[in-house]
Design brief:
Elements lengths: L1 H14 L5 H22 L16 E2 L2 E2 L4 H8 L6 H13 L7 H7 L1 H18 L20 H12 L3 H12 L3 H4 L34 H13 L19 H10 L7 H11 L19 E4 L4 E4 L1 H11 L2 H8 L7 H9 L1
Antiparallel strand pairs: 1-2, 3-4
Helix pairs in contact: 1-2, 2-3, 2-4, 2-6, 3-4, 4-6, 5-7
Length: 346
């Protein structure tokens, strides 16, 4: 089913450390869109626009123009205060405003809403097409950053540093929503992770879910308050692996150049790119930790910046062809010998 295919792609983008937040939004948008079209088709609802004067279908390239997702949501959830509709409409609005340099921060700030977005989709899907559940296709994603005290603080810092423009978008959208809806897990799904100790049975899962309705009033209040600002429970004794799979600038340049027909060096290209894309601060900055953690982190022990696989992917996306290189740097690339000869021969 096309809808499920996009949902799985969206989850791959979210759970992949080098995945794009904007790609997650695009695929979940399509997943919801195709799902609602399938629902309308099943119950014989015409989901195409009609000309208000003639009553005939509006046509695009010879085909009736189908309703966009906003129109579908209004038809499926006619109550404008419906929690599921408000959650989906939030991401419709956000999808049109995302800028790549804010993706890391937005991913953290909107994490609970994104979780609800997916869960609502799963419930809608199984409600109409029970055999297409995502449950047997997915695993609980492992998280390192969110389960350590330092990682937790890094996430809080990223949330605080979300620039004003996207922060205002979120604030404006939610300003008119009833507080009870904002606390509803169908709008913003928050979880509290607690390590489980003791003997394990064959029936146990790695994750246990506790319903709020099963808790006492005091327990429920504590859990809800903890969920508002996030909470992490850790043990004192733990071992962390620092900068796993991170690369120095020379390693980045070598790996990028291996995938290009032209030269890519640390000083001619790499420095320009991290400066222009605001991946990290310049040396001597007052806050060396003010990096885009998705692409780069600061190693205090060695007083240097190290880079991620996602940064290599980003570089190739920005300047991976001669045309893109020329547009980014405003000059011709230095072609490798074999590539230059082929270009001249052509």
């Amino acid at each position: 089913m096309e809808s499920q295919r996009h949902a799985l792609k969206a989850l791959d983008e979210w759970n992949n450390s080098s995945g794009d937040y904007s790609d997650f939004l695009t695929h979940m948008h399509k997943a919801w869109h195709y799902l609602l079209h399938a629902e309308f088709h099943k119950v014989n609802i015409d989901y195409h626009y009609r000309d208000p004067k003639t009553g005939r279908h509006q046509m695009i390239d010879g085909e009736p123009k189908a309703w966009d997702l906003e129109k579908c949501l209004k038809e499926r959830f006619p109550n404008s205060g419906d929690t599921v509709r408000l959650n989906a409409e939030f991401f419709v609005a956000l999808r049109n405003k995302v800028e790549h340099r804010y993706e890391h921060n937005l991913r953290i700030v909107t994490g609970g809403r994104a979780q609800a977005y997916v869960i609502n989709y799963e419930q809608e899907m199984t409600g109409y097409f029970g055999g297409y559940s995502l449950a047997d296709r997915l695993r609980f994603p492992l998280s390192v950053q969110a389960l350590t005290a330092d990682g937790y603080e890094e996430m809080r810092k990223a949330a605080r540093e979300l620039p004003r423009k996207p922060r205002d978008l979120v604030a404006r959208y939610e300003a008119g929503i009833d507080p009870s809806v904002l606390d509803d897990p169908r709008y913003d799904y928050r979880v509290r992770l607690v390590p489980i100790t003791g003997s394990k049975t064959d029936a146990d899962l790695a994750v246990n879910f506790v319903k709020l309705d099963d808790l006492s009033e005091d327990e429920r209040r504590t859990m809800v308050e903890a969920g508002r600002d996030g909470s992490v429970i850790t043990r004192d004794r733990h071992v962390e692996v620092s900068d796993l799979d991170r690369m120095r600038p020379a390693q980045v340049a070598a790996r990028v150049e291996d995938q290009l027909p032209f030269r890519f060096s640390v000083y001619n290209e790499h420095v320009t790119m991290w400066k222009r894309l605001r991946v990290r601060p310049a040396k001597g900055s007052g806050d060396p930790y003010a990096t885009n953690a998705r692409y780069c982190t600061y190693n205090e022990a060695f007083n240097e910046y190290v880079y991620t696989q996602a940064w290599i992917k980003k570089i190739l996306k920005e300047i991976g062809t001669v045309e893109k290189y020329r547009a980014f740097f405003g000059r011709e690339p230095r072609m490798k010998t074999g590539a230059a000869e082929s270009k001249e021969a052509a």
